Amino acid sequence: MKKIYFITGSQDLYGDDTLRQAERNGKEIASFLSEKLNEKVCIEGMPIVRNRDEAENCIITANSDKACIGVILWMHTFSPAKMWIKALQTLNKPLLHLHTQFNEKLPYDNIDMDFMNLNQSAHGDREFGFICTRLGIKREVVVGYYKNKAVIDQISRFVDVSLAIAFSKSLRVGMFGNNMRDVAVTDGDRVESEIQYGWNVNYYGIGDLCDLISEVSDEEIDQKMKEYTQKYEMDTDHVEAVREQAKYEVALEKFMQKENISAITDTFEDLHGLRQLPGLAAQNLMSKGIGFGPEGDYKTSALSAVLFEMAKYRDGATGFTEDYTYDLTDGEEMELASHMLEVSPVFSKNTPKIQVHPLGIGGKSDPARLVFDGISGEGVAVCMVDMGNRFRLICADITLIDQPKPMPKLPVARLMWKLKPDFKTGAAAWIYAGGAHHAVVSTALTSEDIRLFAKLTNTELVMIDEKTDLNMFEKNLELLEIISGKR
User: Fold this and answer.
1) What gap in Å lies between CA 186 and CA 320, rounded to an integer?
2) Residue 367 in contact with residue 359, Cβ under 8 Å?
3) Taking the CB of residue 26, how many other CB atoms lie within 10 A of it?
4) Helix ranges (DSSP H) in 287-377
5) Which residues 6+ apart lie within 8 Å of 382 measured at CB?
6) What is the three-class DSSP state of 120?
7) Residue 141, strand partner residues
């Protein structure tokens, strides 16, 4: 199981009795939090840290422990912050600074200096906070009594994001074909992606997949078809087209297992050797957390896998979709998001239907795909763009809505939503920010999750929400350009 190190800071000044009590208190807090979060992670209480060497050794242990995905630090007493400098400079795991106390209430009737000396987080955490700020350490600060639900919820969010970051650092993305020709926003610096996020992104010829497809047995196809009929409604007589998709998925699973890949891209410009564009196959893989990006969009593929991992313990849906078209009725504007084939069935309002229809692009046989109407609820749309000298995350709050009317002649999966704070502001802000037409949509995650992920990965973040004012938004974008050195 993954774990978070809980580190309690102090110093030798207080004497053995106080230090032993401080260590017991720290481990009790760690045990309590571990019990609350045991579905996700183990919170491991570490020996108390009293000096520079112990601080450095504790962080080195955290860095080298592959099971450790982050650290929580708490200054129970006063811990002189110069002793933390080298340790913090060494730290390569996400950091949460917990500003709490072992006691919830002051013992007014019998408080004395012994109590004061033992319970000095109001003192020690400020000292520690200063050195983190001085060093430019990106961290999450959580304030409040550690047993309060709000505090536990914030720590739980940190755990979710830390799990996603750990997953991100080992993520491998396979690109079948390259970026769609002449398309800009889906492209990016793959080397920089690996440096900053750990995404190892590599190109594979479509022939590598075709070789595996040719080896798939009828028995393997039958097994995959059984999975399809258990999960979805078969709404077509073109069973052979569905079996073709089953064959693709079996081959893709084998390829990904062999190459340790958790996210893929394809492009309709490179389908040599395939009879269909992967549709149902890609959709079913996405429902299991495999990242996907069409037209060679590796950033969306990787991001969808990472955010799916972040949302693993949440209710709601997370997956790729594309901005497609609008209803521009004045005052009632809404967006229709979809794709040619590949929208994850996690967004389906009802049981998805397997259908086969012509596809007016790619020049291949009619592909099988899942067709459904989307869910409703509050959510976020998130995209990543390469700004040349840094990556930018754009996160917009949206409200997913029920489809107002049937769309009997649109044989694809679809989602509909309204932008915030209103259509004109939300759409203009997205465009001013350079937002892509591909995004990861989630009803499980919130803008707070994306904010924390951006902070802990040192990624520029642009937010669009109910408070967005377009004039101020543009000024903030200009300021980001100045800070980044592009102006």
Assistant:
1) 13
2) yes
3) 24
4) 298-310
5) 303, 307, 393, 394, 395, 396, 439, 440, 441, 442, 450
6) coil
7) 97
Sheet arrangement for strand 42-45:
42-45, 3-9, 68-75, 95-99, 140-143
Cα 244 from chain centre:
32
Residue 487: band (very low, low, confident or very high) from pLDDT cuts 50, 70, 90:
low
Alpha helices in 136-235 (DSSP H): 149-169, 190-197, 206-215, 218-231
Q: What is the DSSP letter of 232?
A: S
Average pLDDT over residues 388-412: 96
| Contact status, residue 34 vs residue 44, Cβ threshold 8 Å | yes
Could you tell me the CA-to-CA distances from 87 to 54, 271, 484 in Å, in that order? 9, 51, 28
152: which 2 tokens?
């536990």
Is the Cβ–Cβ distance between 207 and 238 less than 8 Å? no
401: pLDDT strictly greater than 90: yes
- Among 250, 472, 274, 284, which residue's Cα sits nearest to residue 372? 284
CA gap 279, 429 in Å, rounded: 32
- The whole-number pLDDT of residue 310 equals 98
Distance between CA 160 and CA 142 in Å, rounded?
15
Radius of gyration of the chain (CA): 25
- Phi-psi category of residue 100: left, alpha or beta, with phi > 0 → left and psi -120 to 50 → alpha: beta
95: nearest Cα among 152, 37, 151, 158: 158
pLDDT class for 270, splitting at 50, 70, 90? confident
Euclidean distance between CA atoms 395 and 108, whole angstroms: 47
**DSSP code per residue over 277-312:** ---HHHHHHHTTT-EEEGGG-HHHHHHHHHHHHHTT
pLDDT digits (tens, 9 = 90+) for 358-393: 987 767 899 999 999 999 999 999 999 999 999 999
For residue range 429-445, list pLDDT tens digits in order.
999 999 999 999 999 99
- In the 3-class helix/strand/coil scheme, how is 50-101 assigned residue by residue? CCHHHHHHHHHHHHHCCCEEEEEEEECCCCCHHHHHHHHHHCCCCEEEEECC
Q: Mean of the pLDDT values across residues 101-127? A: 93
DSSP per residue over 425-481, as a string? Answer: HHHHHHHHTT--SEEEEESS--HHHHHHHHHHTT-EEEEESTT--HHHHHHHHHHHH
Nearest to 288 by CA among 268, 266, 304: 304
pTM metric for this prediction:
0.96
> For 68-91, b where at least 16 C-beta lie within 10 A, e where not — what string?
bbbbbbbbbbbbbbebbeebbeeb
Angle between helices 149-169 and 447-456 (to 10 degrees): 50
**Dihedral in degrees, nearest 10, Cα atoms 32, 37, 43, 45:** 0
Beta-bridge mates of residue 371: 353
